[in-house]
Amino acid sequence: MIRSSIRLLSFCAVFTYVPMLFAQTEKQDLASLQKSIAQLVPVPIKTELSTLPISEQQALNKLIKAAHLMDTLFLRQVSANNESLQAELTKRIQTAPKGTDAQALAQAQLDYFLINKGPWCRINHNKPFIPNVGDKKKQGNFYPEDATQEEIETWLKTLSEQDKAQAMSFYTVVKRNPKGQLMVVPYATEYATELKEAATLLEQAAALTQNASLQKFLKTRAQAFLSNDYYSSDLAWMELDSDIEPVIGPYEVYEDEWFNAKAAFEAFITVTDQAETKKLVQFSSYLQDIENHLPIDKKYKNPALGKQAPIRVVNVVYNAGDANRGVQTAAYNLPNQERVIQEKGSKRVMLKNIQEAKYNKTLLPIAKIALPESSQKNISFNAFFSAILMHELMHGLGPHHVYQKQTTVRESLKETYSAIEEAKADISGLFALQYLMDKGVIDKTMAPLFYETFLASTFRTVRFGTSEAHGKGMALQLNFLLQDKSITINKQGQFSINYQRIKKAVEKLTQILMTIQAQGQYQQAKQMLDTMGHVTPAIQQVLDKLTQVPVDIHPEFIIQ
Ligand code: ZN
Questions:
Q1: Strand-pair category, 127-128 with 120-121
Q2: Reported pTM
């Protein structure tokens, strides 16, 4: 999975209209919709750009303009009716009597429409929040509205391998010709007006920037918009070494719920975070040392770690399209084209200011409820973000192949793999931070910050549900540490770290998980997840108290 997905909670209002009680319903619907909107709490997102050279600031402006076009295209990809519905809502706001519930409702509907990029609530199973829009179509607007999945599958079987590849390409839509037969249309044709405009803006940005690698990416991406061939621009993106780190174009395929084949338009216009990048370089330089000191049998350790996948830490200036809808992306792994990944690997990008906004609006309020007063001083964004960086790095350490067998850990652990791997990255990340403190690389006074911020963040992750790997893996860790009594619960149901035990317990769990991986022990992995990978009553009583804490943030980008 490329992005952490979130299955959540039922907050969205579902709309049923009784005409006789229209005014009354309007008021109720407004209140209900406002409650939904509050679950995605608005946060101003601002990135300091004044340190960038003027040339780069000017290039950024062009990129933001191009990003706006990704919003337009994404709206159209989600639903053929989105653009007319947006116009309709805007008209309703203008024509409704000022200050009435009707006007306020239309405004709230438009606000929430823009947050969800359509009239369906993404944090509640895509339930419609505007009357008479019907259900969200699983095929998006990538296939004909009147087609069925079976019709497309049958048609695919009639095609040559080459035509089939085109039909299932990231960068084409399937339409009907005038005779009603299915046909393939490249994005460059289907979205020609917007893509030509976007290409011009990227060309202009390329002419402004002084950075050669950025220039190359922008020029090749502009060509891709026109030619429909994204290969060389994806390669150029892997070679980017620039203050500005943009993602712009069609990337993720989640919006096509039929085949996961069609890429949705998005933009992450970001700039590199220099301080965090330094921290990352520092952590990275100790990876072999950490591997050598992992608490596992020596024969499972890798004496020569290969080249690790690149990681960048950036701050978002502006996100658009698929990159700005519903729950916000905190990190991404790109590109998605297999051919590029095989040649160049992929790159992980962490969005620091988005993570910080999530931390402020969700983790801090969770810590106030889940942990006692005495712990509050130890909840720290710096510790939170260091743990995230370490989590990412630790994915590269530990066993990836089963000892003395020709199989990978992923193959051996089957459906348990993701949850075990996520739990391993968390807990061995804590182990690594402790190791670096013991070594004097990180200040020892950080210890309570790391452990207690970790404890608070376990509830944030488990809250997303244990049907998903991160949540399941986190429940496993929390239950293990509770059983070990390295985490304790007071009479008020609040959780604390037992400093007499935690260090050893973290080592022990790291050892258990990595040994399961090294030996490819599927049964042990399954048993561990069956007994500990779920929400126990002690955890549930905390989750029950979190209903007032927002689900996520809604960024309001402030551009200087
Ligand atoms: Zn992970």
A1: antiparallel
A2: 0.90
